[in-house]
Design a protein that fits this description.
57% of the residues lie in helices and 17% in strands. By secondary structure, the chain is α+β, with helices and mostly antiparallel strands.
C-alpha cells in the first residue's frame, strides 16, 4: 500500500508524484524523493528495489520483518530498522516495525504491524524548510525522533500501572492477582528494552566516529536521539527495579498473612487444648479419683475450663494473635 510519494527541492515540496515518476526526480541532483509504504507485498518491494537500487539483503530483511533494531550501511545508503510499540485501551502492547531505506536523494519507509503513521512527521518537516534542505538525512532524523518520542507515553503508562499495583498490595487485594500483574508489567518492560537497547547502541554510528556521509551534517540531531534513548533506558531500569521490589514486598505480604493465619490457628488450638486436657483426665474412668463424688464437681470443672480459656484468650488478644 502506497501511503504517500512526494518530491522535495531546497527544503520545499515540489509535488506529490506517482510511482512511475520517481526515476525522473532521482536523476536530478538537487532534489530527493520521500516514499512511504504500509504493509507492502513482495511485488511492491521488488518495484522499489529496482527504482532506488536497494541492496537485496536489506530488502529481504524488510520483506520478512521481525528484525532486531539496527542501522546498517550499504555503500552510500543506510538501512534502519525501528520497532514501533503501541498500547491499546486494555494496556496490552502491539508490536510493529518501521524499515527505512535512506540514500543521498531518497527516503523509503516501510511500516508493518502498526496503526499510527507518520503524517504529522511529514507535515512538520514541510514546515521547517531550513532543516528539510538537509535532504534525506533530516527525514531519517524526523522519523527516528518521532518513533523514539512515542516510547515516552508508554513508559509513563507503566509507571501509573505500577503505582496502582502498589496501592492494591497494601489494600488487601488478592496477592496472586498482584503477582500476576507485576510479572505482566515486567514482560512489557522487557519488550521495551528489546526495542530501545539495540537502537541505543546503533545510533552511536550516526554521530560518533566515522559517520555515514548521508548523515554527516546532522550529527547533533542524532546525538539528541541518543540522549532520549539513554533517558528511556534509564527509566526502564528504574521501573524494573521498582517492579522487583514490589514483587518482594508482595511475597512478604503473603508470608505475613500466612504467619497471621498460623498464629490464629495456634491460638484457637490453645483455647481448645485446656478443656480437652481436663476432660481427658476426668474421662479416664479410674475408680479412685478426687472430686468424683463431689456434688459441685461438674460445674466447678466447667467454670475452671471457662476461666482458664478466658485468661488464655485475654493474653493472646493482647499479643495480637487473635
Amino acid at each position: 500500500m502506497l501511503v504517500s510519494c512526494a518530491a522535495y527541492q531546497n527544503g520545499k515540496k515540489l509535488a506529490d508524484i506517482g510511482e512511475h515518476e520517481i526515476h525522473n526526480y532521482l536523476s536530478r541532483g538537487d532534489c530527493f524523493v520521500w516514499v512511504a509504504l504500509r504493509e507492502p507485498d513482495r511485488t511492491k518491494l521488488d518495484e522499489m528495489r529496482k527504482e532506488f537500487d536497494l541492496h537485496p539483503l536489506a530488502v529481504e530483511d524488510a520483506r520478512h520483518g521481525h528484525q532486531r533494531p539496527k542501522i546498517e550501511e550499504y555503500g552510500d545508503s543506510l538501512f534502519v530498522v525501528l520497532q514501533m510499540i503501541e498500547m491499546d485501551a486494555s494496556g496490552s502492547l502491539k508490536l510493529g516495525e518501521l524499515d527505512i531505506f535512506v540514500g543521498p536523494n531518497y527516503v523509503l519507509s516501510v511500516r508493518t504491524g502498526a496503526e499510527k503513521g507518520f503524517q504529522e512527521v511529514r507535515a512538520r518537516s514541510e514546515r521547517e524548510p531550513d532543516l528539510l534542505r538537509h535532504g534525506s538525512s533530516f527525514v531519517l532524523y524526523a522519523l527516528m525522533d518521532a518513533t523514539v518520542d512515542r516510547y515516552f507515553p508508554i513508559l509513563q503508562a507503566f509507571e501509573v500501572e505500577l503505582e496502582g499495583i502498589e496501592e492494591r498490595i497494601f489494600s488487601g487485594a488478592s496477592p496472586r492477582a498482584n503477582l500476576k500483574a507485576l510479572y505482566a508489567l515486567k514482560q512489557k518492560l522487557v519488550t521495551m528494552k528489546h526495542a530501545i537497547g539495540p537502537l541505543l547502541e546503533a545510533v552511536g554510528k550516526l554521530f560518533g566516529g566515522r559517520v555515514p556521509q548521508v548523515c554527516a551534517n546532522l550529527q547533533d540531531y542524532f546525538r539528541d536521539i541518543s540522549d532520549h534513548l539513554v533517558r528511556l533506558n534509564t527509566n526502564i531500569e528504574s521501573i524494573r527495579d521498582m517492579v522487583i521490589t514490589a514483587i518482594s514486598v508482595n511475597l512478604s505480604m503473603i508470608t505475613l498473612e500466612e504467619n497471621k493465619t498460623m498464629k490464629q490457628l495456634a491460638a484457637y488450638a490453645a483455647l481448645v487444648a485446656v478443656p480437652t486436657l481436663i476432660a481427658g483426665i476426668y474421662g479416664m474412668n479410674f475408680q479412685h479419683m478426687p472430686e468424683l463424688e463431689w456434688l459441685f464437681g461438674y460445674p466447678a470443672v466447667l467454670t475452671a475450663m471457662a476461666a482458664i480459656d478466658y485468661f488464655i484468650y485475654y493474653k493472646l488478644k493482647k499479643a495480637h494473635w487473635l
